[in-house]
Amino acid sequence: MSEQINNAAKLVLQLRQINKNFPGVKALQQAQLSLYAGEVHALLGENGAGKSTLVKVMTGVLQKDSGELLLDATALSFATPKDAQQAGISTVYQEVNLLPNLSVAHNLFLGSEPKRFGLINKKAMANQARQLLSTFGLDIDVTAPLSEFSVAVQQLVAIARGIAPKRGAACTKVLVLDEPTASLDADEVQNLFQVLRQLKQQGVAIVFITHFLDQVYQISDRITVMRNGCFVGEYQTASLNKAELIAAMLGKELCQQRHQTPCLVVEQSESILTARQLSSGQSVQQLDLDLPAGQAVGLAGLLGSGRTEICRLLFGLDQADGGTLSFAGKPIKLSSPAQAIALGIALCPEDRKSQGMIAPLSIRENISLALQAKQGWWRVISKKKQQQLADFYIEKLQIATPDADKAIGQLSGGNQQKVILARWLAVEPQLLLLDEPTRGIDIGAHAEILQLIRQLCQQGMSLLVTSSELEELTAFSSKIVVMRDRKKVAELRGEDLNPDRIMAAIAGASV
Amino acid sequence: MTSEATVLNSHHSDQVKADQLKTARQARYSPGQSAHKFSLYLYPLVALALLLLVNVLLDPQFFSLQWQEGRLYGPLIDILNRSAPVALLAIGMSLVIATGGIDLSVGAVMAICGAVCANLLLLGDWSIPAVIGLAVLTGLACGLVNGVMVSYLGIQPIVATLVLMVAGRGVAQLLNQGQIVTFQNPDFAALGSGSFLGLPVPVWLVLLSLLIMQLLLRRTALGLFIEAVGCNAKASRYLGIDDKGIKLSVYLLTGCCAALAGIVATADIQGSDANNAGLWLELDAILAVVIGGAALTGGRFSLPRAVIGVLIIQALSTTIVVSGLPAKFNLLIKALVILLVLMLQSELFRNQLKAVFSFGKAHGGKA
Fold this sequence. Notes:
The complex is a heterodimer of chains A (511) and B (367). Chain A is α/β, with parallel strands linked by helices and 511 residues long. In chain A, 36% of the residues lie in helices and 25% in strands. In chain A, the strands form 5 sheets. A 6-stranded mixed β-sheet of chain A has the order 6-9-10-3-11-12, with helices on both faces. Chain B is mainly alpha-helical and 367 residues long. Chain B has a single domain (70-346), classed as Orthogonal Bundle (ABC transporter involved in vitamin B12 uptake, BtuC). Helices cover 74% and strands 4% of the residues of chain B. Chain B is built from 16 helices and 6 strands. Chain B has helices at residues 2-8, 14-26, 31-58, 75-98, 106-123, 128-152, 157-175, 186-193, 201-218, 222-231, 233-238, 243-269, 281-291, 303-322, 330-345, 347-366; strands at residues 66-68, 71-73, 181-182, 195-196, 199-200, 271-272. In chain B, helix 4 packs across helix 13 (281-291). Classes of the chains: A alpha/beta (511), B mainly alpha (367). The interface between A and B is large, with 57 and 41 residues.
């Protein structure tokens, strides 16, 4: 198949020797990418490898400093995203960029609504929307506001919008998907892949950016790997095994680190936190939980199973309405995060963008804020002390940045996550709750965060970590709590700590 | 720990990493950072300088200062003196805007506090510190009303403060029983028209307020918390900042600033006019904050820049008077000049301007 593509298919888009500099950073150096009609092309690399920058150059968000962009063998340069769209390059970005208050149908056709007598023809729009979404296996009320649907549905709508016909534009020749599967469950991913295969048939070239390597092998025909802003290589997916791929991405064999078995000496230790029959409305029901001191406990379950709700409850964001909670041997009642932090509990939240980082503020300020909040506003952390704190963690967690004064919003996802982690490490909590700490970050940062979790345990910190990646959970957990439908359904230890057993517990097969 | 982390990361070249860190340390207070800060001050200052230049062209005596009876007189001193009430308002308004809010009621709060002062002075048995104290307490109470509505009842700031903007003037009218209340108290009047060390008292009040607020906000973490809440209130709550408390506190501080402005205005005219005291000044204060470069969506703020904004507005009013143009042109010219100042601050506009000029040059060269 891939061979055929190379021989028969037409070269749609070619990027050659692209250079792009930002102040102090060479974001792209001699980067290249070639796309053939009817292929799924995976663009892979660590965070900060330059994937997003390359995509932005391709879609007119950024202008290249030098290099060539050929679309159907014609040299072009896009001044704005609209130019690129008109030429037939559609993009779906990592974060859903839609208008939650408008209807699904309106979101799909915003700017190119079907019209009658100069007014929007709502009926036609709804029909077209239904038709478009049915190809995704999505049967929803398209007249309802987008905000009523889950993030997964919103993500699918964003992708559908990417391929929806736009007024005055060439038909979609290139579709760029930046992390489209990050918030989808397995079934939804399969739906999406089905759609991608259809699009392939129609001759669309698809650029697929992801951190899920399994999906790369499932769907892609060819792979381009980037590292540090440079082109590393272009490969046929079928002839590149996973270890070689990871080696290309990281520049060395890091995969061993990642799948290392837990190195914890699991011994019985006292509980740092004990919950008995803890409930909170409908979101958490009669939870019994023991978190042993100095160990990492994994929290597994599907989206919506109550994982995030437990974290919120233990951090005082939600209030318990039943049961008891004790921390470090004393009964506690939490009513605010500030109170939880004062006790020594910290939460690294699930949604980095809205709950974690304060985007316009600098790395230095983002790192020192939680400690400052804990100390109170009147006991100021001097700028010098903030700088020391920031330098220390930039070095310790290998945060890639020219300096601590850079706004956190300008960093890549993995580095943002490290800054948020640094913020909480600076507070020196006894119990650290990590809600999906590795979501949407590259393998390099991923491995570093897993390593960090182990190290923190060795230093005596207790952790509760939720993750959708079961293999990851088994890499550090001394026990794994499995949630289903807001209830704890299993606690796995020792021999049972493997993805298959967890999967079975999640599915409800055996406990 | 560090060693293991390093092993894990040796795919980054260690040397490169070390170099980066070194550069990072050198660049800590890099020119880039300070240049950015400098440009934030540059455009408002350039605008102010241009306005003063126009004034001096219109009136060669514009920069002249006279020393009479122990105090300085001159157009520049006039500008400083007349700026005082709005400058006090703008200091508070900066903070409210930094949290993403707005306070439309400050003009009305000035009127209420002015009425409180005038009526207490008319009763005659209150000492001046007590009068000032009660006026400030009244301002704080108004701020409390606004703050509670915004942060604890979740009412949008523009609506919440609109309530007091309308009701406040009514309260002031009730206090004054529909009259303009005048008083005879030279000591209190000195707060508006007296002088100290050669400068008018209101100017000292502004400087003192600016200094105290700067210390309060920047020598504690309060300023940082205000900016954090303004940028992302949810994330601020997640990291342990009492976002509602911070929002409440900025409305309290603004109420306090409005009270001071009310005291100055009342002392200046030795009376309280509930209908006109502080009328529309909230809009000047908001404008000054915006000219100072703050975003209405919240985030970073700078009190000195807001005060520069006030001076620009006041200098402009003076220019129009000095220019001898008929008064009917005042508002229109004011609006146009302010539009120009705001456009100068927009990087996008400056780039377009540059592009136009370089285009002209290129073509001129060919011709």
